[in-house]
Design brief:
Strand order of the largest sheet: 2-1-3-4-5-6-9-10
Strand content: 15-25%
Number of domains: 2
Structural class: alpha/beta
Helix content: 25-40%
Number of strands: 13
Order of helices and strands: EHEHEHEHEEEEEEEHEHEH
Radius of gyration: 20 Å
Distance between the termini: 41 Å
Bound molecules: succinic acid
Number of helices: 7
CATH class of the largest domain: Alpha Beta
CATH architecture of the largest domain: 3-Layer(aba) Sandwich
Length: 314
């Protein structure tokens, strides 16, 4: 019977501690083990939960090796008949990148719910215990299949979630897309159906040594942007470049010229927007390819995975 919930710990503020209970910023992330986080939430004690510490890092330091290991452990547990769902505890800072990575690689047919906190576990305002409980409630409920993110009582699609605020507890949204669900007093209210991932990249594409994964960098179009950074990155043999353009993914003339030279030299380029919300719309065949509704950091993950997928085919 599918009933077990596996909770994978990766660190973050949810596992953070501070010397003072009123210090919401001067703390150390990734100090408390995932089993201890679960033990601090009494309603979880009765549930069939298995904990595994996959990493213990501040998510600003998230890296390819950790993504690879997290995907491998999630894939392993998702493949077990008795596992109903996975919950991942994570830092908020790169949550949208990890969520998108897992969405594109695994496209799970069971719930995979990431959760996080904006205050450390020792804070008077600690939001981790409630967020963890809400994530488990959504995972148990089972109606939101695939990758989602639960913070502050709402669930967002892993493909669309974005960190919107540097400090507030309710720091996430999904751009133009609304929440998938709310979790209120343990009750899940479904509001939308997540978009399925049509062509998941799959585990085989990310099986190679992560130290040799393609390098993909992000550059920004801004007043006075020239192509010097792009030219330097091409000289360093970067494999892919995401550009966060102004408005609808627009680029200064000099930056665009350097990106076109890069594309001609074989560097894959993807054009996102530096706006907080909204997609890159349209685009003629002669334009540099657009990243649709992906944020620049998610577009970087997308390009990384496309490059890894292309290596598999070659
Ligand atoms: C982190 O991202 O690991 C630290 C910051 C946070 O979780 O809010």
């Amino acid at each position: 019977m599918q009933s077990k919930i596996v909770i994978l710990g990766t660190g973050g503020t949810i596992a953070g501690t501070a010397a003072s209970a009123v210090d919401g910023v001067g703390y150390s992330a990734a100090r408390i083990g995932v089993a201890q986080l679960v033990a601090a939430v009494p309603p979880l004690a009765q549930l069939p939960i298995e904990c595994e510490q996959v990493a213990q890092i501040d998510s600003k330091d998230m890296d390819f090796a950790t993504w690879q290991r997290l995907a491998q452990r999630a894939a392993f547990h998702l493949g077990c008949a008795e596992v109903a769902a996975i919950v991942v505890t994570h830092g908020t800072d790169t949550l949208e990148e990890t969520a998108y990575f897992l969405h594109r690689v695994l496209a799970p047919q069971k719930p995979l719910v990431l959760t996080a906190a904006m205050r450390p576990a020792t804070s008077l305002q600690a939001d981790g215990p409630q967020n963890l409980l809400d994530a488990v409630r959504l995972a148990q409920d089972g109606r939101v299949v695939g990758v989602s993110v639960v913070v502050a009582g709402r669930a967002w699609a892993g493909a669309e979630v974005r960190k919107r605020h540097s400090y507030r507890l309710d720091a996430f949204d999904a751009g133009d897309a609304g929440p998938l669900a709310t979790i209120e007093e343990g009750q899940v209210r479904c509001l939308a159906v997540p978009r399925p991932c049509d062509a998941p990249i799959g585990m085989a594409a990310i099986a190679s040594d992560s130290a040799a994964w393609p390098r993909v960098e992000i550059v920004l179009s801004h007043a006075g942007a020239n192509g010097a950074l792009v030219d330097a990155l091409v000289a360093q043999q970067v494999s892919g470049l995401v550009v966060a353009g102004t408005g609808n993914g627009r680029l200064s003339a000099a930056l665009e010229a350097s990106l076109r030279r890069a594309a001609q030299a074989g560097v894959r380029v993807l054009r996102a927007s530096r706006c907080a919300s909204g997609p890159v719309i349209g685009g003629d065949a002669d334009e540099l390819p657009g990243a649709g509704a992906l944020s620049a950091v998610q577009a970087r993950v997308e390009l990384l995975l496309r490059l890894l997928g292309a290596r598999q085919v070659a």
